[in-house]
Amino acid sequence: MSDRLIIFDTTLRDGEQSPGATMTEDEKIEVARQLARLGVDIIEAGFPAASPGDLAAVKRISQEIKGVTICGLARANFADIDAAWEGVRDAEQPRIHTFIATSPIHMEYKLRKTPDEVVEAARAAVRHARSYVSDVEFSAEDATRSDRDFLCRIFAAAIEEGATTINIPDTVGYATPQEFAELVRYIQEHTPGIEKVTISVHCHNDLGLATANTLAAIQVGARQAEVTINGLGERAGNTALEEVVMALHTRKDIYGGVLPRVVTEQIVPTSKLVQRITGIHVQPNKAIVGANAFAHEAGIHQDGMLKHRATYEIMTPQSVGWEASRLVLGKHSGRAGFSARLKELGYGDLSRERIEELYQRFIALCDRKKTVTDADIVAIVEEQLAQVPEQYVLKGWRAHSGSDGRAEAWVKLLVNGVEREASASGNGQIDALFKAIDRLVGRHCELASFHVDAVTPGEDAQGEVSVHLRCGDHVYNGRGVATDVIEASVRAYLMALNRAALTSSAEVVS
Ligand code: KIV
Ligand code: ZN
């Protein structure tokens, strides 16, 4: 049995199904490029039949991202498979992933098909996909609530038709580790032809067991893990890539040296990119990529760490891409020092104009803040990179409030190049400012989430605000960074509205 684990990343497909995680085409390209740098084997780039936008994004990723397999998802019908092929046909290494549900509840209520009809649909789907491409994955949706012998029967049929990977999804996150390992073993022992294909697992985290279930399956022979960055995904999410990869590296004694080809130092940069683009932040105590994952607070731990790191650290922060924070850049550092630091922080390919914009923000920040750290620089760079073309540009704002809770605000924006201003009152300064902006923009979107973080400790810390706005059926995220939390909120709100404006104009054009 091979000791290489294939990493199938579905951040751009299952991950994007998280509420509010919708990404623009350019953002998907950015994530896909970083996933290739991270060293994943397969990028599930989307579900091309779902929408023309999904198809266009999968197609562009297939054309632009090289050195990695690009996969498109398809239900077990010809139209979906044709769309998936259209999406991946230009990839260096294309894959079609087709699926159908196999549990009694899904077959009866969702598909309204008999088990025989489901097997026939799976056969026809795999055969059709194989007429396009030699790399075909077949998944039995809701496998963990399916009859085991039925699973073996449908997998054998898919293999007979030419499937090269057989995926066992725990679609609703129902399995427990021992039970899941037994299921994988049963399938291995009772499915004709299984030795010719790769066994894959795809776990959801509804009971917080996705990583444990994935690792249990790897221990008995699964050699492809379907994962997302930060565990993003439907409901409670999918298995987190970073957790599986680092468990395999850290516990080679248990997993027998089964390893992926992932470049572990790229884990944290990838996590941060996905957080920035989706606006979905991981909790501070999240394994591997949370802000506190390597912070040692208790005196007894700090003492132990100073004597020998391994007393309280099972892997080094550097091994997953955390950098020790270095001080100090000031306004006397100049452009050269600033752009050298940008390079060190992983932003080596920014245009001259972009560096100049960032430098101006950095200088303004130096006037407001005693010490500017790497974290401050990363925060302004990430905010700048998340910007979409701006229909609404902030030119000025003012707000005041009193103990009666009432607040008054004034805002000046450039709206499509024309300077406009408005005032409003509200329940607190941020509410009043958002209302004044709504007047200028001429629409109101529901504030679905509002989140404030300090970039660094200290009284003069920059505040980082993330918002999600629900505008009709879509949710847009925005992010703003400033030493004044109210200004950061206005910036975040405008970024989300600019994203909404971009999408509506794209919809009108297409
Ligand atoms: O969770 C699931 O069953 C899926 C399939 C499409 C593999 O995402
Ligand atoms: Zn899934």
Automatic annotation (TrEMBL):
Reported cofactor(s): Mn(2+)
Pathway: Amino-acid biosynthesis; L-leucine biosynthesis; L-leucine from 3-methyl-2-oxobutanoate: step 1/4
Enzyme Commission number(s) from the entry: 2.3.3.13
Keywords: Acyltransferase, Amino-acid biosynthesis, Branched-chain amino acid biosynthesis, Cytoplasm, Leucine biosynthesis, Manganese, Metal-binding, Transferase
PROSITE patterns linked to this entry: AIPM_HOMOCIT_SYNTH_1, AIPM_HOMOCIT_SYNTH_2, PYR_CT
UniProt similarity note: Belongs to the alpha-IPM synthase/homocitrate synthase family. LeuA type 1 subfamily.
GO biological process, one term: L-leucine biosynthetic process
Subunit composition and interactions: Homodimer.
Protein known as: 2-isopropylmalate synthase
PANTHER family in the cross-refs: 2-ISOPROPYLMALATE SYNTHASE 1, CHLOROPLASTIC-RELATED (PTHR10277:SF9), HOMOCITRATE SYNTHASE-RELATED (PTHR10277)
Cited SMART domains: LeuA_dimer
InterPro entries named among the record's database cross-references: 2-IPM_HCS-like, 2-isopropylmalate_synth_dimer, AIPM/Hcit_synth_CS, Aldolase_TIM, LeuA/HCS_post-cat, LeuA_allosteric_dom_sf, LeuA_bact_synth, PYR_CT
Domain Pyruvate carboxyltransferase positions: 5-264
Residues that hold Mn(2+) according to the record: 14, 202, 204, 238
One Pfam family in the UniProt entry: HMGL-like
Reactions performed catalytically: 3-methyl-2-oxobutanoate + acetyl-CoA + H2O = (2S)-2-isopropylmalate + CoA + H(+)
Domain of life from the UniProt record: Bacteria
One Gene Ontology term, aspect cellular component: cytoplasm
Known role: Catalyzes the condensation of the acetyl group of acetyl-CoA with 3-methyl-2-oxobutanoate (2-ketoisovalerate) to form 3-carboxy-3-hydroxy-4-methylpentanoate (2-isopropylmalate).
Broad class of enzyme this protein falls into: transferase
Gene this chain is encoded by: leuA
GO molecular function, one term: manganese ion binding
RNA-binding keyword on record: no
Annotated region (Regulatory domain), positions in chain: 393-510
